[in-house]
Amino acid sequence: MPVPETIIAVVAPFRPLFTAPTWRKLMTLLTGTLLAHGPRTVCSALRFSGEQGNEHWSSYHHVLNRARWSPLAASRCLLLLIVETLLPKGAPIHIVIDETLERRWGPMISKRGHYRDSVRSSRKKTVSSSGLRWIVMGVVCTPAWSQHPWTLPFLAVLSTTPAVSEHTGKRHKTIAMWAGQMISLLHRWLPDREIWVVGDGAYNCLAFGLHCAKRSVRLITPCQFDSAFHDPLPPPEQLPKGGKPRKVGKRQAKLSEVLHDPCTQWEEQVIPWYGQGGRRMQWCSGTAWWHRAKQPPLPIRWVLIRDPEGKQEPKALLCTDQHVSPLTIILTFMLRWSIETTFEQTRAHLGFQTQRQWSDTAIERSTPLLLGTYSLLTLMGTHLQKREPITPEYTAWYHKSEATFHDVLATIRVQIWKQQINLTAARDPAVRLLGSSVLDRLLFAACF
After folding, report:
1. 72 three-class SS
2. What is the pLDDT of residues 109-126, one digit of tens each?
3. DSSP letter assigned to residue 87
4. pTM for the predicted model, two decimal places
């Protein structure tokens, strides 16, 4: 199936990373993945791309399990493409990092483990599922057709359990250790840009914070209410003589004590709260040095947030830059929720966790490729938006205020089908009699 110009214009920077045969197969799989409904297996992609009669269908599996190409090089190319296309020049880059579980079963999946399933769990009940845990890093941006931030994945790393690491003979790495290596890659790829990283409680680690501060990366994460925060080290003349040299000053009160202290001064303001409109919230803030044994101290700013109406539980945040305002920390941390929308959309519309590869190489390539397809579709929509606006689907029972990812995917599918119909119309005069406007309505209706 021929590839439309909309897709070629976006994926052209990736062409030097692959050999010519691998690139042709990859374009076929990409086109079939965009058109497919249901599982995103290689055979499903071949069916929807019109290659179901290809006797050499098994060679398309080689793109994932045998071909020589670097996923890290593709991640770097995707990151630079996102930054260049969707972010203003010189603007800060907001990065969200989080984990997602790809539910997989069977003895052939050698790196699977049992993890807490955040989708199926609740506050009262914890559900664990067998699968693969991916650490995903994405860029936060706002497409032209949306008023809400989107997180576009560009890097995904497979994290394993200690038992799997021991079985494979490799040193086990925690989530914080993997995240530290991902931050090093990010700093290497964008050495001259201002970078903010937002994570959940899994990244509330002093070693990870020190790693980010060393590379001038601002980190914002939740923190515990009993964290060991201290005052700065006093001048030498005020330090007691003798004994082991001190690294930090006097320990500050716990955040739980600050939260319930009647003398605490709170600021109050109506702020946008996770896309739900304005909500009146209160907060207080302070600076401290975060310190633990055998590790150097880290200067941080902490922020306590509470709901005056009591509907939301209090939350504590920290930032590795003491000069950032508390309101900026709060608003930046709320960008983290956009990656949850990304995970939900990739499951609903791109068949995430429906792929069925067994080899380790294919597994470690197919899932990052599917997540990267989400970013590629957003870039394709941005390229197409310059010529014709992306319009949302309207029905009598569901009114959209703006286009969603489903609308972007439907628009790209229409472009692919138009390319195929134009080639068919050149050979079949009966197709030309329908007219372009009728075809457009039929194709758009077929997407939903």
Report:
1. helix
2. 889 988 888 878 877 888
3. S
4. 0.91
